[in-house]
TrEMBL record, chains A, B:
<dbReference type="InterPro" id="IPR028939">
    <property type="entry name" value="P5C_Rdtase_cat_N"/>
</dbReference>
<dbReference type="GO" id="GO:0052851">
    <property type="term" value="F:ferric-chelate reductase (NADPH) activity"/>
</dbReference>
<dbReference type="GO" id="GO:0005886">
    <property type="term" value="C:plasma membrane"/>
</dbReference>
<feature type="domain" description="Pyrroline-5-carboxylate reductase catalytic N-terminal">
    <location>
        <begin position="3"/>
        <end position="108"/>
    </location>
</feature>
<protein>
    <submittedName>
        <fullName>Oxidoreductase</fullName>
    </submittedName>
</protein>
<dbReference type="InterPro" id="IPR051267">
    <property type="entry name" value="STEAP_metalloreductase"/>
</dbReference>
<dbReference type="InterPro" id="IPR036291">
    <property type="entry name" value="NAD(P)-bd_dom_sf"/>
</dbReference>
<keyword id="KW-0560">Oxidoreductase</keyword>
<dbReference type="GO" id="GO:0008823">
    <property type="term" value="F:cupric reductase (NADH) activity"/>
</dbReference>
<dbReference type="Pfam" id="PF03807">
    <property type="entry name" value="F420_oxidored"/>
</dbReference>
<dbReference type="GO" id="GO:0015677">
    <property type="term" value="P:copper ion import"/>
</dbReference>
Length: 227, 227
């Protein structure tokens, strides 16, 4: 069991924090402003219930500032939206994240031109790489960013889990740690794509994910690599 | 049965022309310079055997200039490399392509910076859209660009064909024509993503396709959308 900080209080952060706590990890959720997060009573822009209600239902999970959450954790999860990921990690503090594994599930979505969003970095660079470059002392592993939050933490909900999840990162040990977590969630087909530059490939899956969501009318689908 | 022009003499053009001819279609392969194509005796830059040998083994398939091939066809297939697709269609001639369905299987790969290639158009535009915009009189349907040439035409080689193929296009009838062709090849899961702007999504699958090719050491894999 690990001490894990989940940065981000939205749907993805809640799903991951809830699952990790359920598996027995000691989970702290990190947020920019604890008082503001707890005071919010309205759904967020994506229609998600406010954090406070979720927190009541998950008493084992602590809420703290980004810095406090990161300081007490052995491992970090970036579940913030891509646009604010870098600011969240800056707020977490360079000393508090140094040497730790960061599971990065964020996508570089740019909603400024409406729906579907475009990507604010792509193809020749990625958010995963940007984070790794800005925080060389972190062991960044990109994963889980190619599926809905429910399927991230409960893959057997769909086709008994017969679908694929990717990992990208420079540190073999860190990828092993993340792969172990993914398997503890129920993922059975973990594909190691290579170093963190391969995060370009999985972040660029978002456009087809978004189009499929539109076509299918549900986010409960998944990529499987048939071979 | 249809009269079909396959533009492009490389591996993808050969695979599609051979399959279509085998199914009884009247196939003409289009090239920039017939004499030069037939005179080539060296493998191309990708290591593919020269066209002349393939042509000998496929006597039912005619070789002609882009313009002649397009003129006699009811339907067109763009199997040129993405960088030269626009030039090939210009050479085919606006009058010769007008009103016809174009199955566009090309990808906007840019090898100028080495391997893996980047995309010369992406995210907010696509090669499919560029072709549709440049030739508004064509009915462009993007498809098959997300898999190896062998699997394009013989999907049951892998997992009995239990994987997915996407179509994008503005014209419903044209998409029906293409979907019918795909089904005649053995594809069973044809997903209509929507209008031609959704070609952005499938062209952006190339980066992960290329990384998976590197990881797996074989191009015989496919995307399946599990739902």
């Amino acid at each position: 069991m690990m001490k894990i900080a989940v940065l981000g209080t939205g749907m993805v952060g809640q799903a991951l924090a809830g699952k990790l706590a359920g598996l027995g990890h000691e989970v702290t959720v990190g947020t920019r402003d604890v008082a503001a997060t707890m005071a919010r009573t309205e759904p967020d822009g994506m229609g998600n219930a406010p954090y406070s209600g979720w927190a009541t239902a998950h008493p084992a999970v602590t809420l703290a500032s980004f810095a406090q959450a990161a300081a007490r954790a052995e491992m970090l999860v970036n579940a913030t939206s891509g646009e604010v990921s870098m600011a969240a990690l800056e707020a977490a503090g360079r000393d508090n994240v140094a040497g730790k594994v960061l599971l990065d599930v964020a996508n570089p979505l740019d909603f400024s031109q409406g729906f579907p969003p475009s990507l604010f970095v792509k193809d020749t660079d990625s958010l995963g790489e940007q984070i790794q470059a800005a925080f060389p002392e972190l062991k960044v592993v990109k994963s889980l960013n190619t599926m809905n939050a429910h399927l991230m933490v409960d893959p057997t909900q769909l086709a008994d889990g017969a679908h694929s999840v990717f990992v990208s990162g420079n540190d073999a040990e860190a990828k092993k740690t993340v792969s172990g977590l993914l398997e503890s969630f129920g993922h059975t087909d973990v594909i190691d794509l290579g170093d963190i530059t391969t995060a370009r490939a999985t972040e660029m899956l978002l456009p087809i994910w978004l189009r499929l969501y539109g076509t299918m009318g549900t986010p409960m689908f998944q990529f499987k690599i048939v071979r």
